[in-house]
Amino acid sequence: MLYRLKNGNFANVNAYAINKLAPRSYFIPFTDREKARDIALEEERYASDAVRCLSGEWDFLFIENPADLPDPFDTDSVTFDRVNVPSCWQFTGYAKPFYLNARYPFKADPPRIPIIKAEPYHLGVKLINPVDAYNNIGIYRLFFDVPEDDKTRKLSFLGVCSSLDVYINGKFVGYSEGSHNTAEFNVDPYLVPGKNELICMVRRWCNGTYLECQDMFRNNGIFRDVLLYETPKENICDYEIVTEKTEKGYNLTVKTYVENPSGGTVSVELECEGKTYTQSSTSSETTSFFFADLPVREWSAESPVLYPLLFGLNDYYFRAEIGFKTIVIRDAVYYFNGKPIKMLGVNHHDTSPTAGYVMTVKELEKDARLMKQFNVNCVRTSHYPPDPVFLRYCDRYGLYVVDEADIETHGMDNNPWGINGISNNLMYRHLYWDRVQRMYFRDRNHPSICMWSLGNESGGFKCQDYCYRNLKKFTSIPIHYEGVIHTRRKAYDVRSEMYTPISFMRRRLRRAIALHNRCYKPYFLCEYAHAMGVGPGSLHDYYNLFMQSNHYMGGCIWEWADHAVLHKDGTYTYGGDHGEYVHDGNFCVDGLFYPDRTPSRSAYEMKNVYRPVRARFNGKELRLTNTRYFTDTSDITMKILVRADEKIVSETTKNIVIEPQKTFAYTPVLPVSDNIDIVVYYLNKETREEIAFENLIVKEDLDKSPATKRKLKELLTITKRTYNVEVNGYDVEISDKDKNFRYVFNKKSCTFTVLETGGVNFVNTEPTNRHGVVGSYTELFRAPFDNDRYPQIMWRTQGVDTYSIKPKFIRTEKKSNAFVIYVGFRYKSNRILATETDRISVFPNGTILYDVFFTPWFLTFLGRIGKTFEWNKELTRANWFGRGPGESYPDFKEATKLGSYSADVSEEEPYIYPQHNGTMSDVRHASVTDEDGGKGIVFKAYKHPFYWTAKHYTEREADKWTHREEMQNLPATFTTIDGFWRGVGSASCGPLPLFIYTLSGSPFRQYHYRFSLNPFNDEEPADTLDPEQERELKEFLTEEGLDDNE
Fold first, then answer.
1. Which domains does the chain have, with CATH numbers?
2. Does residue 1025 have a pLDDT over 50?
3. Distances (CA, A) of 509 to 82, 487, 499, 502
């Protein structure tokens, strides 16, 4: 069959919607009443006898160069491939995946679009592979049969990128832009009884591409289901739900819109609190049904109460699930059902590692379910309307939805037009409004919708003003658009920002309080806490700030899941791995979950920060606060563990019913101890699954802990022991009388080159570290986190990644109770970075006590201060008492708790882009041993806990790797004791760490930390000290300078 496919629709700014039907609500009708009422949501779309899902195998022709498109196009002479619909042709082998963040894949010159191929990329960048720059075309064909009947048929495309020309039986049906909006066409005039040929032409780029510059892989194809509605000519084509709160309950108005009304009976049946309310009326174009003072329970994310509503006309039925809510803004506070709720949210893209934009109903349900499991209560559909079934799951599971229009012109920011270039050009206002209204009319009946969003990062404000005024005519739900904050409009219904530093927000809040709480709009962070790689840091600080004022609505973390391409060999790739001629690297790998929805440590951090109950210990009482607004804690069981001196001394399970926003005081029985902490687990009462936990430090004095007392008691026996010191050139050998241990200190490198016990030297004598040092060295560099985007620039500029070590032996002192070594170090790159003095005390029992005094010299963004030891590779087990089980850092440790943990040194958090990971914080003592635990090195913290890392590679290796598959272990084991660490922050896109989590790089600040190490010793001294030993201990601490109060 012949087709004239060549047309200029894709390049015509006024041709965004040709013959498209008006937008309407999404629903699936059935001819069977019971089936319509009872069908499972995951089956609904595919089990209807009134809607035919055309998804499946289609014929497909990929035209790389659009100049090769035949005219006319004869389907009988073309050889088609077969592909599955929905799919993206970048994921079916026809083109390569292509990732960009905030740029267009062609030179921006609106309204002009590349007809054949992109010009050499702007800013003088040469195309790497010109073939990849063609404006490809995909031709889809499907044959389907239509019986001879009097039904009407609508063809519905739920998602096509970027443009869609539809043809049936040789005739042009219509054209659509707006990739994530539903496009529907009346196909009655084009169908014939029997076999029909459907042709869909999809282009890589069209004029609408200027409005779809979102941070994601730029995919193409029919990526959502294609539906064929087959209904009587007289049918309900749309409906609308309007609710109004009254003194006795809620009034409900149900409006139905009927096509071709011809005397049929429209019925609605509402099931409400055990009663069934039914009304019917003769069909008309618009029919309203009114239900007064319904005794309903309100819908909220905490209690997502839905009421089934069944529609019927001419033996065709469909189901809706409705909820009742009120939203008002009063005195710059957002009230949901009368409460100033907090939106603890995430940003969600439709993304699959194996299919791109394609997500199945089961995958969408899984995302919604995981959000609830991880204590999320809000989702922003960044940056386009989702598959409508996702909103159905948000209704059911209870998620507040910020529904966002498919508009982003971020790429305009990278050319002379500027970010406002399109949004302030009213020529585009109808394109903007088309996308906004199609979102609104499709989704307006979902109770989960809490805000409408006019798009993302598009500057403005003229086209947004046009959309705002139009949308306000239809809805009372607040309208959001972050980009307007940068214009003189400042805000629409809420003030929205992204990645605002906490310090700025605090100043703004103080200013508002000074002005007697005069904020002019509620404040919402539509994006915050960029979850790229390790981090984000300070989630708990943001949460605490949200809770300080009702003006703060909360925010949405960026973002839900990593974007990456999964290959058959199990590897992931990101921007630049596919030969893209322009790309933005791994910036797409920025989710709380890995692409396959395995939670990362970031997800667990969020889960604990977003916990529904919060505990605080005031010195006597454990005060438990229910942070919910609508429901009590009758569904939560609280398990309270009290630990003293590293041992659990009591465990209490409580089923405490705390009313919303109320606090319950519980007095736990605490033992007499100087080291006490409490762990509170919040469990689902029914399933016993963990909702969250928190760890409260009641008392802490490391120098009075059992582990420290055991170590000090060992040291107290030194007067009964003797040790030998022999000097041989640069080597100083220290051993005890019976040669149980033998240590060799090299005065040239100022490190221990031999740490031998039981005939085994644990030091790796063939070093693999960059410095070539046998033994240990101070580590200032960390393989940058993704969130070290800005600090790492300074590190590399200052040479923190390449510094050299200049050791200086100072002197030794042989005392009766210890052999003390004093050494100094200078760390130098293009200038002196820092100096250090170490006081190393070797005791007759084999204990080595390090006192490290470190002075930075104007080290900007100092990342860490620690001592790395290189051991033999046989030491493969890491054990510690500190925070675990996963990594933690100063501003990233809400998902960890104190305890005893053990792991293989090779265990890694599987970040797609390698970076430093695996550091454990608040560690009291640790060890690295062989597999059997029979030998190894024991470390102990003094005064304050240390940070602990055990790896089979160094920071320099990790810094070189760009994919996790490149990671290789060295024939050694590296343990690092860090006295100080810089926080994580979220500076991959957001703010740097808060000041309290940073390290001063000033020469006026000296850092001192202390720890001991021992080659593994099986002897276990008694846990307690008698009074005489206590006295002796105090004298010893004073003599050795171990009792100073830093």
1. 2-231 (2.60.120.260), 236-313 (2.60.40), 613-700 (2.60.40.10), 748-1040 (2.70.98.10)
2. no
3. 59, 21, 16, 10
